[in-house]
Amino acid sequence: MKRCFIALMLAFSLVSCVNEEFQAAPDVQAEAAAQDALFAKGECIVLFSDEMVADIEATVAAGSLRTKSADMNLLMEEFGVTSMERLFPHAGQFEPRTRKEGLHKWYILKYDENVPFTKAGGSFENIPGVEYVEPVRAIKMDEAYNDLTDELWGLDNKATKDFDINVLPVWENYTMGNSDVIVSVVDNGVDIKHEDLAANCLTTGHYNAVDNNSNITAGSHGTHVAGTVSAVNNNGIGVAGVAGGRYPTQGVRIMAIQILHEGKSGDFERAAQYAAENGAVIAQNSWGYLSGNNLKDTPEYTKKAIDYFVKYAGCDEDGNQLPDSPMKGGVAIFASGNDNLSQSGYPAGYRDFISVAATGCDGMPTFYTNHGPGVNLCAPGGN
Questions:
Q1: How, if at all, do strands 354-359 and 331-335 pair?
Q2: Are strands 282-285 and 253-258 parallel, antiparallel or unpaired?
Q3: Residue 194 and residue 190: Cα distance in Å, rounded?
Q4: Please, what sign has the CA dihedral across residues 154, 155, 156, 162?
Q5: Predicted confidence (pLDDT) per residue in 257-309, tens digit
Q6: Cα distances (angstroms) measured from residue 5 to each of 178, 188, 291, 299
């Protein structure tokens, strides 16, 4: 079976957290401040123990912020905590497996934005019953992508043969895209009414993870990504998608999941959970974490979200393949990043999915692509 993927590149290394209990030297303070600038202000992700999470659930259900832990209460008062909310929301019929996977133990704590994470995180992780604390990392989109023109050499390279994804024989002998397949495009929004894309977008079921609703704001990058996946083919409009179908037959369907809008970002973790529970079996990700020093791994809560999608996409609440799903379990695809690093960026460097680096029309790596450990495939990108 032939599988074809376009590299839709975006960037990303990571940032480390410095936790100081003493008066740091100026250069250490400056480094900590620089790293805090790469984190969302006034938010952190906390993993509670089984015993502690039972207390937290009862506290939240009562509409209170007063737990049974005096140490926790003192810190929440000190840092001005305003809310505790599950990172992975209550999943209705899927809640039993959500709890089986331990997703119910992850919470977002929101506190005074003037308190740096390097202070709040180090304090919370010393509380008994707190197993893990991480910052909410800022993410970015990189606008260095293919123009939407007729010169789609990545699909069919007429100038330099063999340096493309060889999609024409697949279209001719296998498929141009199957509407049973739903691809969640996790990005800055998709123009679901675009004249060359609307026919392959879901009519309902999109998710805005920034505002926690179904209203999608069109973004140029997300629309480009969705078009590369499933722009309608042979309709005399725009460009050809890798799996856009043969007009008027529908290609793979696009589920728009928005995680960026007007400088605000949503939680990828909620996006992955939503995609898995609403029919998507492929998650396309062309985003990554802002670069910083010494953060050389994907956050644990992001790994949990990816693992959940890979394990449960296309399944019912008992983990059985749905009768109308083409797959049991999902495939997650991430761009390796545009930092010219000798390893994949993150979260693409996490090994439980496909990380894709970019080649040019001459078959050589592009000057900007990340490469080396953590990268699984190379595919056309740029120009």
A1: parallel
A2: unpaired
A3: 9
A4: positive
A5: 999 988 888 899 999 999 999 999 999 999 888 765 455 678 899 999 999 99
A6: 15, 20, 25, 26
Burial class of 122 by CB neighbour count within 10 A (0 to 12, 13 to 18, 19+): middle
> Of residues 237 and 177, which shows the higher confidence score?
177
Structure tokens given for 274: 């939503």
Average pLDDT on 315-335 reads 95
Residue 269 sits at the vertex; the CA angle it makes with 267 and 271, to the nearest 5 degrees, is 75
Tokens found for residue 322 = 């749905």
For 205, list phi and psi in degrees, rounded to 5: 100, 10
State residue 10's pLDDT score.
Answer: 30
Distance of CA 173 to the CA centre of its chain: 33
- Which of 366, 374, 327, 351 shows the shortest CA–CA distance to 3? 327
Give the residue among 155, 184, 157 at the shortest CA–CA distance from 170.
155
pTM, whole model, 2 decimals?
0.78
Label residues 205-239 b or e (16+ Cβ within 10 Å = b): bbbbbbeeeeebbebebbbbbbbbbbbbbebeebb
DSSP string for residues in 12-39: --EE-----SS---HHHHHHHHHHHTTE
Could you tell me whether strands 260-261 and 331-335 are parallel, antiparallel, or unpaired per DSSP bridges?
A: unpaired
Strand, helix or coil at 198? helix
Q: Are 43 and 108 in contact (CB under 8 A)?
A: yes
| Beta pairing class for 294-295 and 288-289 | unpaired
User: What are 21-27's contacts with CB under 8 Å, separation 24+?
Assistant: 21/122
Identify the residue whose tokens are 């493309």.
Answer: 164
Q: What is the pLDDT of residue 356?
A: 93
The structure tokens 């005399």 sit at 236
* Closest residue by Cα to residue 306 from 344, 333, 288: 333
Render pLDDT for 242-257 as a digit per residue (tens, 0 to 9): 999 988 899 999 999 9
Euclidean distance between the first and final Cα of the chain, in Å?
A: 29
Q: Are 288 and 139 in contact (CB under 8 A)?
A: yes
Q: What pLDDT shows up at residue 325?
A: 96
